[in-house]
Design a protein that fits this description.
Blueprint: H1 19-36, H2 40-46, H3 52-60, E1 68-69, E2 72-73, H4 77-90, H5 92-112, H6 115-126, E3 132-135, E4 151-155, E5 158-169, E6 176-183, E7 186-193, E8 199-203, E9 215-226, H7 238-272, E10 274-275, E11 278-279, H8 284-312, H9 318-343, H10 354-366, H11 371-383
Parallel strand pairs: 3-6
Antiparallel strand pairs: 1-2, 4-5, 5-9, 6-7, 8-9, 10-11
Length: 389
């Protein structure tokens, strides 16, 4: 006889995972439970990302975990996705740190760097000893990076970089920045140590979202780096866009972690909060909200798993990643809003995680490609017509 479905795993998604995937999930979940959840509301309120978390996440094995060699475990796409889900169930800022470190900075070096660049940076980035950031977005060029104004010009054997990058996660704590700049040869990537003269990072303050994450503006003024700091071969936007695709993949999983936290919080609250002499879980409108959350959480998690399996099989097109990012972040934000309404006034305090996740997801909705950009990517995929311009 089939038992009743679990309220927390209604479709039995756990049974679709193998033993290694469950081990990764459970290990990261335990880390989040023991290290992140007891502290995250204070980190969010004080606008703090503890730098020591970098080494702890390195020890956990989630920094560049899907890369091969140089101290990286070469985990499957699904295992990496599950790690992102569990990290974001703690907080989007913690998952963002790991994503930028592994899927942007480390992936860029692994994919486009020279052997010497890989040897220099990747092993110590995998352990969290060194922190990286990814400089693509500019104050006037977010969704259209092709118009970037940051430039690099040759000066003898060196390169001179001038320009500004904005909204750079990890920027103020990074030891090295992956910087994309216009050159006479097209857009190229460079590795710029944070100690380089002419390179400064300024914290972006007064954020109401991703407060447990460092966000910075990077400024380059006559910043001189040696010739070997350039990525040797890649030219054009295919370099940074390949990295963005990796980061977007982590986002489509991570959003479901934030959504799960909101759903579980609302469900438990509804069972214990009493109004008119009984728990609010017994009211039809509350059940409608909880069921809506349940549906989208389970569908989004199944979607993430399916795209992960496609990625592991080598069949995931960038448009598939856009499909997942567009759907899952949008639905996670709706789940957070529904959960907030179930909690009533209590939903706006940091005593519960919902408003924190909701605020964070407003940023996740925009970064790694806005909702509109992913809509147009999918539109082009199904019609064959480019509607970006």
């Amino acid at each position: 006889m089939v038992g009743s479905p679990s309220a927390l795993d209604f479709l039995g998604i756990d049974a679709l995972l193998d033993d290694e995937e469950r081990m990764v999930r459970d290990t990261v979940r335990a880390f989040v439970r023991d290290r992140v959840l007891p502290n995250i509301s204070q980190w969010f309120e004080s606008h703090t990302f503890p730098r020591e978390l970098s080494r702890e996440l390195g020890t956990l094995g989630v920094l560049g975990m899907h890369l091969q060699g140089y101290g990286c475990p070469g985990a499957s796409a699904v295992s990496y996705g599950l790690a992102c889900l569990e990290l974001e169930a703690g907080d989007s800022g913690i998952r963002s740190f790991a994503s930028v470190q592994g899927s942007l900075a480390m992936f860029a070096i692994s994919r486009w760097g020279s052997d010497a660049q890989k040897d220099t940076w990747l092993p110590r980035m995998a352990t969290g000893e060194l922190i990286g950031c990814f400089g693509l977005t500019e104050p006037d060029f977010g969704s259209d990076p092709s118009g970037m104004r940051t430039s690099a010009r040759r000066d003898g054997a060196d390169w001179i970089i001038d320009g500004t990058k904005a909204w750079i996660t990890n920027g103020g704590i990074a030891d090295v920045a992956v910087v994309w700049a216009q050159t006479d040869e097209g857009i190229r990537g460079f590795l710029v140590p944070s100690t380089t003269k002419g390179f400064t990072a300024h914290a972006i303050e007064r954020k109401m979202s991703l407060r447990a994450s460092v966000t910075s503006e990077l400024v380059f003024e006559n910043c001189r780096i040696p010739g070997e700091s350039a990525f040797p071969e890649v030219r054009g936007l295919r370099g940074p866009l390949a990295c963005l695709n990796e980061a977007r993949y982590g986002v489509l999983w991570g959003a479901m972690g934030a959504a799960r936290s909101c759903y579980e919080t609302a469900l438990e609250y509804a069972k214990t909060r009493r109004q008119f002499g009984r728990p609010v879980a017994g009211f039809q409108l509350t059940q409608q909200k909880l069921v809506k959350m349940l549906l989208e959480l389970n569908k989004g998690t199944l979607l993430a798993l399916h795209i992960g399996r496609m990625k592991d099989d080598g069949n995931a097109h960038p448009a598939h990643i856009s499909f997942g990012k567009l759907n899952n972040v949008r639905e996670a934000l709706e789940i957070a809003r529904e959960a907030r309404s179930v909690l009533g006034a209590n939903g706006v305090t940091l005593e519960y995680p919902v408003i924190r996740h909701m605020n964070n997801l407003e940023s996740v909705f925009t970064y790694e490609g806005t909702n509109e950009i992913h809509t147009l990517i999918l539109g082009e995929a199904i019609t064959g017509s480019n509607a970006f311009t």
